Structures are given as structure tokens and as C-alpha cells.
Amino acid sequence: MPNVNPWRAARGRQGLYSALRQFFAGQGYLEVETPLLVPTPGMEPYISAFETPFVPETDLGKARTLYLHTSPEYAMKRLLAQGAGPLFQICKVFRNGEVSQTHNPEFTLLEFYRPHADYHAIMDDLEGALVAAGRAAADAKEGEPGADPAFFTRTPYERVTVRDAVLRATGVDIHQHADGASLKRAVEAAGVRTGDATSFDDVFFHLFLQKVETGLGHERPTFLIEYPASMAALSRLKPGDGRVAERVELYSKGLELANGFSELTDAVEQRARLVEEQDLRRKLGRAVYPLDERFLEAVGRMPPAAGIAVGLDRILMLLLGVQRIEDVLLFPAHGFV
Is the sign of the CA dihedral 128, 129, 130, 134 positive or negative? Predict the structure, then answer.
């Protein structure tokens, strides 16, 4: 059990979910549920899924490996392709091996999508949702030590490009460096330790963790936008500037809270990116998951859309003013690992 009053965390979670559901209903979003047990998990190179064997007891299925989902993203995008309007979901997700002060292998995501919208619209919706959550928390927790629900009501949230965030932290302009070797020389001159990293993305990772991330979102939440194109993940490239992707992350007090995109709707490009991630997983010695063909087929039928995933346990940590994820969980992972 956590070292703070567990009922404080439970009441805070109840209030957070209630405020979010009220906000999204008011914005015309439909709450949905998608399967936790899936035939194909996400392909992110540094995320490992929990595997479980499916052993049928009738002739209606065949034995196979299934996975606890790492995100509801694939399923929710299939719903968008079927013509759904704005969708949101509050659900458990699972990532094997993730245990730290701010990680738990089982945690709660808010994930939502708006069709015919881009990353600017999804940022506005998330800002509105967190303002509503902050106000509700302030009403319920006035006077509680350490709580800072008003933090999320400090609007407008900052919006800064990755390029500008790196510039102000180090003086390095990442757009002036086309490859890993060039970026490595520049950031090492700025005091970044890059070890044996050679690729642009790996050098950037060292730069970001050492010089940028911890400085984000201290006066008010910060949306970090427009990541280098090589880090597009499932986002589209910015029209008119192919150097960057329409990807956004939300940071508060140096902690990542959310990750979202203007969604890629090119099925051919999406397949190519997933194959590249399979290759990278193979090189890293990680399990290589099969492609989700139903998801790939749906990508090409999706309308223009934007979506974002938000770690609600971390939101609750900030609302309650605690430093450890275990302090907002009734049964944190250290109870079984």
C-alpha cells in the first residue's frame, strides 16, 4: 500500500475521472471500451508487452499468443475508420518491465481522438479537460498539504517547438544538423554526454534527457510540439515543412504526461514505419511483434484526425502533490516484484 492515506488517492481518482467524463461529454465525445487482450501490441521499439497464451477449450478458436495492450490506439483508430465521431477512453494499459518512481507496469490512460482535426485542436481539448480536472480537484482538496490543483488552471499552456526548446536550453539548432555525427559534435560542445550514440535519434535522446526535459513545464504546463521527422511515430509530417512531424507531448514540472499526433492516414507509409520499427526491435534484441493488418487496413480509411494519450496516474500525482506513482495506487507494482 502507498505511504500516504490511500483513501485520499482513491477520492482524488474518483473526482478526476468524473471531471474528465463530464468535460468530454460536454464536448460531444463518446466514451468507448476496446479490448485489453489483443493479437498484436504496439510496435514502439522501447516498449515490451506482456504475453499470455490463449488455449481454447472448444473448436471455436486456435491456440495462439495474445498480449495485454500497451495502448488502445490501434483499436480506437479502427473505430475512427468506421465513421465514429470524437472518441475517448479511460482504461488500464500494460508495459512489461516499467517500474520506477514514475512508472508502473499497469497504469491508467486517458486516450481520445477527434476526427477532422489536427494537433492544435487536440491540444486545446486536453487543456480544457485538465483545467476542468484542476478546478474540480481544487474544490475537493482545498487546504490539503502538497496539493497543487491550480497548476493545471494556469492558462494558456505554453506551446514550444522542439527546435526552440533545444535552442533555449543549449544554443544548438537541431535543424542545422542533418545527421548524428554533426549533431553529436554540436551537443558535446554544449556539455552533453552522448556515450557511444551515433544516430541522430540516439544523440537527440541524450541531449533531451540531460538538457531539455527537466526544464519543461515549471511555471505552467508545456506542450512540446513538432518533433524531428525521424521521430514521427504514428504522426503525419507537417505540410510545408517535412523536417518536422505534427507530434506533441505535454510536460509539467519536468514530467511527461501525454503524447499525441495529427494522425498519419497513409497506410503505405504507416506500414513502412512499422516495418522499420520491427527491424529496430530485432537489432535491440526485443520481441518482434507481427503487423496488425486490420489496423493497417483501417489507417487508409481514416479521416484526418488527431489524438493523444494521457497518463492519468501522473496527472493525479501532480494534483495531489506527491512524487511517487505508488502514492496514487492502491496496489503498486512493488507489491509483487
Answer: positive
